[in-house]
Amino acid sequence: MRIISGKYKAMRFEPPTTITARPTTDFAKESLFNVLTHYVDFEGLRVLDLFSGTGSISYEFASRGAVEVTAVEMSERHIAFIKKIIHKLNINQMRVLRADVFRYIEHCTATYDVVFADPPYQLDNIAALPDAIINRQLLSESGVCVLEHGAANSFVKHPCFVEERKYGNVHFSFFKPIHSK
Q1: Which domains does the chain have, with CATH numbers?
Q2: CA 47, CA 111: separation in Å to the nearest integer?
């Protein structure tokens, strides 16, 4: 895996074989961030990365100038790896929390400019994520939620759906609060 752009551009890291997360491919990640340039200015962003896995998306946001990146992950192994990379790169604006994503959303009082969620594709309640994020008002007025998912899920009929981008088996659905559309 590599960081594509920004302060840590071209930094490469290999997660240990004990990491069970499915990292977003470099191709899909690069495409995602190209699309995101039409939604946000990376400088000064507050970002929430749900189901962080290896932290790859979080590092990319931090590298591009986000002022705050919160990574939420349940696996201790994954958290240890993320903390190792944070320390190695000296990323001061990033923190990682061990929590169940749905419980975190339920109790979160902060707002973010970008909420990125990359749950396991087979997660039973993946369809509940956009509503949970939007209904808890985790997005700022001009914020965007990006949900990574497989082909089995479609969100085109969701009232806050904006667009979907497909890169191989990776699908990104974009959502905005109704008042900001």
Answers
A1: 42-180 (3.40.50.150)
A2: 9
